Amino acid sequence: MNAFxxxxxxxxxxxxxxxxxxxxxxxxxxxxxxxxxxxxxSLHAFGARLRFGERSTxxxxxxxxxxxxxxxxxxxxxxxxxxxxxxxxxxxxxRPFAFELRxxxxxxxxxxTDAHFVRRFRLxxxxxxxxxxxxxxxxxxGEPVYGLGEKWGRLxxxxxxxxxxNRDALGVNGEASxxxxxxxxxxxxxxxxxxxxxxxxxxxxxxxxxQRAYGLYVEEPQLDLxxxxxxxxxxxxxxxxxxxxxxxxxxxxxLGVILSKAYYVDAEELLDTARQVREREMPxxxxxxxxxxxxxxxxxxxxxxxxxxxxxxxxxxDELKALNFKVCVWEYPLVxxxxxxxxxxxxxxxxxxxSETGAAYRYQWDSEPFGDVxxxxxxxxxxxxxxxxxxxxxxxxxxxxxxxxxxxIKADFGEQVEDDTIQAANGDRGRQLHNAYTLLYNRCVYEAxxxxxxxxxxxxxxxxxxxxxxxxxxWGGDPQADWxxxxxxxxxxxxxxxxxxxxxxxxxxxxxxxxxxAVLYLRWAQAAVFSAHMRLHGIGQREPxxxxxxxxxxxxxxxxxxxxxxxxxxLPYLQEVVRQASATGLPCQRAMALxxxxxxxxxGFEEQFMFGDKMLVAPCLRADGEVEVYLPRGQWRRFxxxxxxxxxxxxxxxxxxxxxxxxxxEGDRVPLGPDVLHTEALGGRVKVERYWCAGDDTSNAGS
Length: 703
What we know:
This protein is an alpha+beta fold. It has a domain at about 250-330 and about 385-420 and about 435-575: Glycosidases (TIM Barrel). It contains 14 helices and 41 strands. The chain has an eight-stranded antiparallel sheet. Strands 27-25-21-20-19-31-30 form a seven-stranded parallel sheet. It has a six-stranded antiparallel sheet with strand order 32-33-34-39-36-37. A hairpin with a 4-residue loop joins β7 and β8. The chain is globular. Mean pLDDT is about 95; it is low at about 700-703.
């Protein structure tokens, strides 16, 4: 069978798939025999589904429901089969297999036109490989492609080789990322989803493969491909999230500021920080106990507080509650071999096993990436979420945490199922389980919050796969604390939003390599005001006053406090945005290609975005305060000073520390709420105090 080298494929040595016999119609699907197993075809309201081969992995619930297929009309001619339904026509050529999907008289997608001297297709339209499948699709000249999860580089994936495989990326500087999905779309009017938990490699106009084709390498015995048709990105994301699910509206308190640090060393430091936040009148809703803050590192994770530092955890949490804080605690899906829970779960078959020994697999951490920055982690077992009893046990053990006063779980890690000797109760191993593991983990923890958290279900997860958007929310991992880390974090969030996930947060100030740069911290905080969730986090303090020793520290700290205050005044608007995101699948932060599909000049400005329907945000990514912003056609007003700007062009601005490059279309208005220090002061619902109007008539607007 065909071998495949993703770095230097030899296309001429790969056998191209062919149809091998007559088609058979079975209800609303058509089955065609091929040189590598059956091809099952169906047409739907959104487009087409093509399934090559038979599924070998478990059903992880990536789809919320199986889509309803439309009744087919089938026509067969020499060497061609054509099926029609729901306004679509799918033409299949037999030798070699090639296809074209049309909606009416418009081509949606097809096999590529990239040809060779001696054969029609230089790349195989479809090929069965030793360890999976290859498929190629057409890309028009200059056509951009978006999606494919949280990626730190250009939003337009054209020219890139992208791997859909969750990794502990250790930052935001490479291709590896924590959150992936093999879903992509183009403003040309098509989208695709590879329905699989397996790794997928995408050569998106990647020149070593083809600069004019999109190649898919799927490491699974079945290639299950959805093709979507839509007038723009919003419609295509709508199709995708209708299939894979949409996020519920998060609780109001989660829209406030979330304060964190790696890490508060004991209860005294935690409570002292919380008291300072209130004494200094810093707006904040949630305070976080990171992994080392509340757990014994050597014996974690077993849902137990470190008794040496927290002999009476409820007393500590009660004091935080009296200060009107919600409480977030960290977890990961591993159990230390030094805790009795490891042996208990291993005896019941509730940990992933080593297929060679049958014993519980023992995960050994590679300490090299962490050096002396983080405490060495213990050898641990991995929870087997495919085992129904293990899943229920892990879910229900959260009850004690919520009963003592926890409101939110930070579900960290989940990328550790890599070794192909790792076996799950459902029979899947290593790479076949790897991506789906994070979906099961997030689902389990979110269901625990739904069952047991009285203040509303919400979590922060780091690792995600197709369908994880149903369990809000996600944060962006561990960025470097510099200007490049800020820019990459923004692109990662926007890319995740272009992939059908509406809610995201970054580590304001950066996670590692902190230089106590007050201006960087300020600009990061100002950008985060206009995101679904806002978390201040990193190695070291992240309160604004902790940066005041620098030359510009006092002024920057004051401006950062103003940004936090603005965040709370914007809560009425933010709640509108998250409700719309929940209903439609659209992200809160919308890249320009998504927000302005008819204005291609805007698409190249990849660090600016629309925050909901009304606010255009161009974050400041330079220490000198310079910003270039493109305003789409129309008239705009700068927020909050109402300075007028004509659209259809770009502007170079120099921002003072307290200034933003935020704009609202002429005639729009933004609801604003009162100044509060936490959402408890709102009595459980947002209050509109006034409207900010983008225009000269401000008689009913307030200031």
